[in-house]
Amino acid sequence: MEVQVNILLVDDNPDNLLALEAVLDNESYRLVKCLSGEEALRSLLKNEYAVIVLDVQMPGMDGFETARLIKSREKTKEIPIIFISATRSESEHFYAGYSAGAIDYMIKPFIPQILRTKIEGFVSMYLSNRKLQLQTELLHQKTRELEKMNKELLRTAYKLNKTEAQARIVRETSMDTMVTFDQNGMILMANPALEKMFGYLEEEVAGEHMSKLLPSFPEIDYTREASDPDTGMLGKLIELQPRRKDGYCFDAEIQIGTAMVEEEPIYACTISDITQRKRYEKEIVAAKEAAEIASRAKSEFLAVVSHEIRTPLTGVMGMTSLLMDTELTEEQMGYADIIMKSGDTLLSVINDILDYSKIESGKMELEEVPFQIAACIDETFDLFTAKSKQMNLQMNYYVDPLLPEYIEGDITKLRQVLINLVGNAVKFTKEGSIDVDVTLAADLGSSLMLGISVKDTGVGISRENLPLLFLPFSQLDSSMTRRYGGTGLGLAICKNLVQMMGGSISVDTDEDKGATFMFTVRVKPHYLITEQEAPALEGGLHSDAIHYTFKGALEEAVNASVNPMRILIAEDNEINQTLSLRMLEKLGYRADMAPDGSQALHMAKENRYDLILMDIQMPVMDGLEATRRILGELPAGEKPIVVAMTANVLSGERERCLEAGMKDLISKPISFQILKEMIERYSAGSTGPHKQQVH
Predict the structure, then answer these.
(1) What percent of the chain has pLDDT over 70?
(2) What three-state secondary structure class fits 278?
(3) DSSP string over 433-485
(4) Which of 338, 434, 469, 527 pairs with 552 at a CA distance of 20 to 30 A?
(5) How far apart are CA 364 and CA 645, in angstroms?
(6) CA distance 343 to 339
């Protein structure tokens, strides 16, 4: 009789439980229904469950708290949990559900077939795991018994005469096949398990060579691989494929032992069928490959999401910047300012999610460039100048004079940590001051350990909320979420970035008296600054840099005449086409427009461009292929500089662009200031077309 699999259904509404019972009606399932989280926890103490279907909104103990308690218990932490909720609009419910340990989250009303399919999948996984556990335990037990038996047999065999040794070996064997053979490989005796495993009777193989059972036996140096009864060393486990009487070959593992009887060696070979184990190993490998495919799909999905969100956001923020540079009434300027601030907020949320995804997948890398720590803090403070003045907050910093003027490290990621911490300090401080101190925590010779603290006089943090502080997708309470917003990823990203830079982060707080965040990072001293390194100190374009757009960032070109530098823009989005052209016009440049990579290739061959701003994802021919074709087909003296414009900021995008021959990369949304600096960099010292070439 087939054993039923337990499935736990938890919902405070009996009608919902009846509906779930109707959907999951199956003779193989034993459905256990509970009306509360407390009742579910009591049931988990009594029964083992393959999967739990859990309602979110329940009186008393809600679904999230119930899930956390389930995951905290060693015996139940691996049970998959599917949340079912009627909440549709609040994304934090999804984050809370997954952070509480859920493996899936479904919205009511759900599609019965989808729920049934998911339950079937989890039940199948549960049954497979049970089989694998039982098989593994059985295999370990058999192996231990076999090793013990072989050791005992080989220890006593040399004391017996030839006939006694053969009889003892056969009597002591297990359910695995045991065959004895002489030094020439001729079979002497076999135990009864031979018939079940191979289909032969003992008299059919006696006097035959071992290759009758083991075709690859001639390739085995059994005198070397056998156990040594004098030292107690066990024989080597060898995997091979024996052949049955009917010609069928199967996976097996053999171990050979030897004993000396009347100065003649006798060998015993134990043959274990490992067909089941091999099948389970293949299933595990297949599951691993499926997980890797899912991980790659996740990365591709994030790349698409990044592109699809950042492309229209480029138009919104860029056009708003251009609009704010025109003649507007005070009311219109206020509306435009709100649009810009909303765009900045949305971009910050997108960056947080993508950064956390990169860190989680291990795809974020560190870079080392020389920079000034004081300049890094100045740049961070500049971002919050307007808000701090509006709130009358004092912003101060101190840099230890023992530190060298220049240090080497990842300024981009250090600045990102400071922006998060200083931004939080400004957000949660109504009055008083924000102080940043940088000290030399340790001089390690070839490297330095910096100790950095960010102190505020704000609301502080309650002690009971401290454990949640650096967890992803966590806010301290719902009222804070409504008042201050955010993804709840900022401090989790800070923690991961600090750990990547060889340090740690902690907090010291007194509720209602402010908080002090302290972290350390490992850097290198940099004492010699050469002319070649000077540009790096001023900052460059980085694919993972955070770009900020401020009111008034647009400025008219110094030279009113059109710059002779010839520029081509390859961009399929009409809004971004207009935005790019208008930004270049503000800088005093004219540009041609290509709607796809194929047209860009054609125009680059027909004209001689100095600079091509190339979008990556375009129809007909993408930007990477177009760049390879342009740089590969144009003569050496006519190759333009190609700069990527991409909404995909995931790890590896910059490397793909450089491999295609591109000179640099600008992330969308495009900042006017970044575009201006990039063009100035590549047109510096150029008085006409083609003065600067890429080879």
Answers:
(1) 78
(2) helix
(3) EEEEEEEEEEE-SS-EEEEEEEEE-S----GGGGGGTTSTT--S-HHHHHHH-
(4) 434
(5) 20
(6) 6
